[in-house]
Amino acid sequence: MRRTRGLVAxxxxxxxxxxxxxxxxxxxxxxxxxxxxxxxxxxxxGSLGRTFEAEHPGVTVVFSFDGSSTLVDQLTSGAPADxxxxxxxxxxxxxxxxNLLSGAPALFATNTLTxxxxxxxxxxxxxxxxxxxxxxxxxxxxxxxxxxxTTTLAKQLGVTLKPVSEETxxxxxxxxxxxxxxxxxxVYVTDAKSSGSKVxxxxxxxxxxxxxxxxxGVVATSKQAALASAFVSLVTGPEGRTALAAxxxxxx
Amino acid sequence: MIRPPxxxxxxxxxxxxxxxxxxxxxxxxxxxxWSRFPxxxxxxxxxxxxxxxxxxxxxxxxxxxxxxxxxxxxxxRSHGRLATAGRLLxxxxxxxxxxxxxxxxxxxxxxxxxxxxxxxxxxxDLAFTTAAVVVAQTFVAMPYLVVTVEGALRSAQDDFDVxxxxxxxxxxxxxxRVTLPLAAPAIASGTALAFARALGEFGATLTFAGSLQGTxxxxxxxxxxxxxxxxxxAIALSVVLVAIAVVLVAVTAVLGRRQQVRR
Lengths: 252, 263
Fold this sequence. Notes:
Chain A is built from nine helices and ten strands. By secondary structure, chain A is an alpha/beta fold. Chain A has two domains: 31-110 and 212-246, D-Maltodextrin-Binding Protein, domain 2; 113-209, D-Maltodextrin-Binding Protein, domain 2, CATH 3.40.190.10. In chain A, α2 (42-55) links the parallel β1 and β2. The longest helix of chain A has 18 residues, at 2-19. Chain A starts with a helix and ends in a 6-residue tail after the last helix. Chain B has one domain: MetI-like (MetI-like fold), CATH 1.10.3720.10. The interface between A and B is medium-sized, with 22 and 23 residues.
């Protein structure tokens, strides 16, 4: 028993010393900015987070990237966050309806859909046309943002899609095309960009008529609203536009 | 024989464990919008998912029995390094994270994979088919049957099989008339465990088989999708899953007891 107690004390001491500040100079008050952001923003926000940390010494930006609806669910259940960025209007509307945000959210980017095929296009797909007959097309399920956009676009173009799978996450569509399980998939242009050389992109004519709006806002329960606002300003400002454009987003 | 009493303090952590396991389930039952319950379940997508789940689980459990039972019997009578490796292999999918199991199946049986591309030359294309769901379920569920039955066979103390063999019964007769009937309770509970695991299969199906109503979207995948838009409907579907699991566990318990009494 005594030995156990000694071990516990030793572990506690180690943990404490690990937390203690190492430099002698008075450090700026440490702060942690928690950003809940749609999964498709991970590349762009990752680089913006590093910019923000460089501009605000002592501040650490922590991201939780997930599906927008999952993030809204977590916020509703009281998850502590300072900033929320949604990949579509519907989920941001859910958040504002539940009074989760302080002030009106800001539109900062839009995304459109595109067709991707495995590198080299082994199934010879030419677009949303007869070349898809008998081939394995994978899309997002209706109800998730990218799926709703797909349904709207198909309706506008007057085409009937016969997918072999309707995924809950756009990244699952991407993975199935990258691995060659699927012959084609409909994803956001930003996903096509992230997949790089693993896929070939076939633009869909008229895709720009269906745009997903990306909105960002400060969470109402944030204890550091000023810092959160500063992050939102960074996202909507010139640096934000550059990072978002690099990831393939269109910016307003 | 009267067993010595247990230490009293044991009740405290035991009660805590029971509460810990019960709270999430009770919370879910409380959250179910019971007035909307029938309507939430009667959608075509829910019914398709339920029907698909039951069909695929029956199929994968059957495959588990046909292939897993022989493996369990062989492992139970094997010794040495090869047997140890075999036991490890047979239990490995139990501890693999589901998505990892799916990725493993993908790189083995995917359209671009070594085995998968050869199978498709033979005209067998698993990608995005119900058969792929059964493969995923079998892969994650079979270990439960093998481990349960193998453990029971190995720890069996009686020598009925030796007696039967001495009396001139052939190996097949000994296996079919003595060894397996004696292991019936373990086979029943192993089968139920495998069925329950197949029913709950999610990650490997999502990664390997895809998600399409009536073809590959089983009940857990439907819960995952519905949760995106309607938490209430997702909870209602989850309760159905829990109910099926409860029935399964109860049936196994009854079967197991009956077998033991007969024995």
